[in-house]
Amino acid sequence: MRTQSRITVAHGDGIGPEIMDATLRIMDAANVGLTYDTIEIGEKVYKSGHKSGISPESWEILRGNKVFLKAPITTPQGGGYKSLNVTIRKSLGLYSNVRPFRAYPPYVPSFFPHMDVVIVRENEEDLYAGIEHQQTTEVVQTLKLISQPGSEKIIRYAFEYARAYGRKKVTCMTKDNIMKHTDGMFHNIFDEVKLEYPDIAADHWIIDIGSAVVAARPESLDVVVTLNLYGDIISDIAAEVAGSVGMAGSSNVGMTHGMFEAIHGSAPDIAGQNIANPSGLLNGATMMLVQMGRADKAELIQNAWLKTLEDGIHTGDIYRANRSVEKVGTKEFADAIIDRLGQKPTKLAAVKYNEDVAISVSIEEKPAKKKELVGVDVFIDWRGESRDADEIGDRLLNVASTENLKLKLISNRGVLVYPGGIPETFKTDHWRCRFVNPEGKILNNSDVLELLQSVQDAGFDFIKTEHLYHFDGERGYSLSQGE
Ligand code: NAD
User: Which residue has its alpha carbon closest to ligand 1 atom 43?
Assistant: First the structure.
C-alpha cells in the first residue's frame, strides 16, 4: 500500500457524493499526490442486476489499485442482495477494522471530554460468515466461526497498532464465560500474545460489562480489540458517546489491500441538501494517507480540520448556537478546511503522525494437533406425542445405539433433558443426542455412518451431526448445561 499513488474511489449513495467531493477537494488542495480511478457501487449497481453491488470490471479495478476510498452506500432491503462491505472485506482479506473515536470538547459537545478510544474489530469471521440454516419447523441456526489464525492476526494487529501510535493499553472484550471454545480461544490467544508486549498494559472485560464501560466510562479505555459482532455494536455506542456519528472514520486493512470509509451510512434523510458532515470520510481518508506513507499530508489535513472545528465553523449535526460561530454546509465546511491548510489548532491538541507507522503482522502456521474422535452429536427433528424426552431417549438408547456408540444424553436448546430431565424445561422439535463410546475407545467415521443408519432404521429424522473430538488430548466440545 505504501508504494501506491493510484487509488480507487466510489462516491456511493445518499450523502456519499457530497462528502466524497468535499474530501477529494481537500486532498487535492493538500497536494496528496494521488490519482483516482472512479468506480460505481451501491444502489444503482444492485438494481442493474449485480447482486453484490459491484460490477466485475469495477471489482478488477479495486483489486488492482489495492487502496479504496469508499463513500457510504445504500443496501437495498431483501431481494437476495449481499452486503458489498462484507463481500469486499472478506474477499480481499481486510481482517482489521480500526475505528478511532475522540471527543473534541468544547467544540463538539460530549459527555466524555477526554474520550480517545480506538476499537480494533476482527473483520472477517464470527457470525458474519452468514452460514444460516433452518433445521426444523421451530429452529434456525447461524454458525459462529472463529479461527486461530484469524484471532491471532487481529490481536497482534491491536498490539502493533498500540505500539505504532504510542498507546498504553489494549483491552480485549469477549463473552468467554458462556462461549468457552470460540470466545475462549480468542481470550486465550490474547493472553499469550500480550506477553510479547510487556510495554503495553493489557486487560480483559466480558463484553456485556465492557459495552457498559464504553457507554459510561470510555475515558478509561485506550485500544479495544474484539470479535466482529461485538466490535460492530460497541463502535456505534462509542461514536454516539463521542459526539456525532458524522465524525468517525475507519480503516479496513489486510495484508495487501485497504478500504477506508466513514463509519456512518448513506443518510438518505439528508441527502442532496449540502448539510452532511464530511468529517467521517475525511478522517477515513486521513487514516488512508498515514497507511500510504503520506503522514505529512495526513497531518496537514487533520490539523486544518481541527483548526476549523475550534474556529467554530460547524455543520448542522455539531452546530450549537452557544458554542459555534457559523453554521455551514458540506461545501463551505470543506472550503474552511482548505483555507486553513498549513495552520494548526491552538486549543485542541495538534496531531503528529509517525512517518514510519506501517503496521505489519505476520503469524506462523501452527502444527496440526492430534485429533481423536470420541463421539458424535446427532441432531434430530422430533415431536412425538408430547415431546417426551424419556420416550426419544429410551428408543435411541435401546434401539438406535450401536456397539461402538451408545446414547449418553439428550439436550434441547443446550439443556439436559435425558436422562434425568425435569418436566418444567421447555422443549422444541430440535434434539441434540450425544453418542459416545462408554469405554472411551477412539472411533472413526465408519462408526458414525453405522450409527446414522441405525438412527434412521429406528425411525428418526436426523438433520445434522457434530463430531466430538479431542485435540492433543483436550476436549474440543462443550458440555451440555446440566451435564
Ligand atoms: P446512517 O448512518 O446513514 O444515518 C443515521 C443518522 O445519522 C441519520 O439521521 C443521518 O442523517 C445521520 N448522519 C449520518 N451521517 C451523517 C453525516 N455525515 N452528517 C450528518 N448526519 C449524519 O444510518 P442508517 O439511516 O441506518 O442507514 C442508511 C443507509 O446506509 C442504509 O441503507 C444502510 O444499509 C447504509 N449503511 C451503509 C454503510 C456503509 O456503506 N459503510 C454503513 C452503515 C449503513
Answer: 265
Q: How many CA atoms lie within 13 A of 10 on its CB side?
A: 32
How far apart CA 357 and CA 348 sit, in angstroms, is 23
pLDDT tens, position by position, 248-306: 999 999 989 999 999 999 999 999 999 999 999 999 999 999 989 899 999 999 999 99
Q: Please state, in angstroms and rounded to a whole number, the distance separating the CA atoms of residues 312 and 345.
A: 12
Ligand 1 centroid–CA 153 distance in Å is 30
Q: 209: how many CB neighbours lie within 10 A of its CB?
A: 10
Mean pLDDT of the chain: 93
Strands 474-475 and 461-471: antiparallel
Nearest residue by C-alpha to atom 12 in ligand 1 = 267
**Which band of pLDDT confidence, cut at 50, 70 and 90, is reported for residue 83?**
confident
What is the DSSP track for 333-351? HHHHHHHTTT---SSSPPP
- Banded pLDDT at 79 (limits 50, 70, 90): low
In angstroms, rounded to a whole number, what is the distance separating the alpha carbons of residues 118 and 122? 13
Q: Is 269 in the pocket of ligand 1 (CB under 6 A)?
A: yes
Q: Which residue, judged by its Cα, is nearest atom 24 of ligand 1?
A: 265
Which ligand 1 atom sits nearest the alpha carbon of residue 262? 41
Residue 179 has pLDDT above 70, yes or no: yes
Pairwise CA distance, residues 429 & 89, whole Å: 37
User: Ligand 1 in contact with 261 (CB < 6 A)?
Assistant: yes
Q: Atom 37 in ligand 1: which residue has the minimum CA distance?
A: 265
- CB burial string 453-469: b at 16+ within 10 A, e below: ebbeeeebebbebeebb
- pLDDT score for 358: 72
Q: Rounded to an integer, what distance in angstroms lies between the CA atom of residue 152 and that of residue 165?
A: 20
* pTM reported for the whole predicted model: 0.91
- Please count the other Cβ atoms lying within 10 Å of the Cβ belonging to residue 298: 25
- Give me the domains of the chain, ranges plus CATH numbers: 6-339 (3.40.718.10), 371-475 (3.30.70.1570)
Q: Choose the residue to mutate in 13, 70, 84, 245 for probing ligand 1, maximizing ligand atoms within 8 Å of C-beta.
A: 245
For 417-459, write each residue's pLDDT tens digit. 999 989 899 999 999 999 999 999 999 999 999 999 999 999 9
- Which residues share a beta bridge with 262? 249
Is the Cβ atom of 271 under 6 angstroms away from ligand 1? no
**Which of 89, 264, 283, 305 to mutate for ligand 1's pocket (most ligand atoms within 8 Å of CB)?**
264
- State how far the Cα of 78 lies from the Cα of 364, in Å rounded to an integer: 41
Cβ atoms of residues 246 and 264 within 8 Å: yes
| Residue 378 identity | V
